Structure formats: structure tokens, C-alpha cells
């Protein structure tokens, strides 16, 4: 697929964790603190970044700063770390989603690829009215959650796209996700599916 299909992976993080914000990626000390707080040793962090353990120690103590390339690797590592993602996800919520599934509400540019014109979509919310609830099964959510927990936003999005596409009027495409929610009940009630 040539186009970027998930412009805001933070929306996925918040949907899976029920509103928690993803780790901040603006400063080195905060990133390293998040990684260490999730149980990663400096040695593990250094191995994932391809640098020495002493280098990570110097960054943490403020004795040096990472080069731009290493800072980008550090940001990517904290955003996709399975340890941070698993720590942010409540075991009870995960169990419920895997066993019972969940309703979906999403705001994004939704449309279709038109031959010769590219993506033709407008921003709208789906799953937001009682007449057209979108429900993902536990099996569908398990596929999404497994990809998410392993730090693979692209695979999680593809699984999400496939699951929702089966229900949404013969399929659809989306870009620029601004809101995504996995909700237990649909406005407090479970509609007949």
C-alpha cells in the first residue's frame, strides 16, 4: 500500500487503553524514564537502539545528548515498546475485549479510492448513532490487540480496517484518524446485533 494509512497512532493507543495518553516523546529524560519505568534495563534500551550502555547512561544523566538519528530511534522505541503498551492496558479491559468484543466509534476521513482521482473522503464519525452500531468480535479484537501489543501499528490498523470493512456497507477506506474508541456498551445499552 503506497499511502500512509495511520496518521495518528496515538488514537489507537488511547482507544486500546481507554483514554490514556501515549508516552511523551519530546525529551530524552522523559523517554528513558518511561522505558525504565516499564521494566527495560539500560542494557536492553541500548541494544534496541544499537548504542552502548554507557551512552544511554550519559543521556539519562544529562552528560550528553543523542544525535538526531538516535533521538528518532528513541522516540520510535518508546512509541512502539511492547512493555509500555502492555503496562498501559488493563488486564480486565483486555480480557473483556478479547472475550466479548467491543463497539467502535471513530472519526476520520472516510471514503473510497476513485480511479484516477485517488482517495475521495470526507471527515465523519461512524458508529456514532444507535441505528448503525459497529461491533467487533472478540476474535477480531484479539487480532488487533496482538498487533498493537507487539508495537505494530500498521498490522493493527489493517486488522481494524478488515474488521470494520466487513460491516460498513461493503467496505471502506479511511485516513487522518482523529478519534477512535472501543466502547463496552452502546450509549449504555447493548443493541441487538
Written account of the structure:
The chain is 48% helix and 19% strand. The two termini are 32 Å apart. It has helices at 9-17, 28-37, 42-49, 53-60, 68-80, 82-88, 91-100, 138-149, 153-167; strands at residues 102-114, 118-126, 134-136, 173-183. Residues 1-7 have low confidence and may be disordered. Strand 1 and strand 2 form a beta hairpin. Strands 1, 2, 3 and 4 form a 4-stranded antiparallel β-sheet that branches. The protein has 193 residues and is an alpha+beta fold. It has 9 helices and 4 strands; from the N terminus they run αααααααβββααβ.
- Structural class of the helix and strand makeup? alpha+beta
The helix count comes to 9
Spans of 5+ residues with little confidence (pLDDT < 50)?
A: 1-7
Distance between the ends: 32 Å
Radius of gyration from CA coordinates: 19 Å
Oligomer: single chain
Describe the global form.
Answer: elongated
Mean pLDDT: 81
How is the main sheet built? 4 strands, antiparallel
Percentage of residues in helical conformation: 40-55%
Note the beta-strand portion: 15-25%
Order of helical and strand elements: HHHHHHHEEEHHE
Number of strands: 4
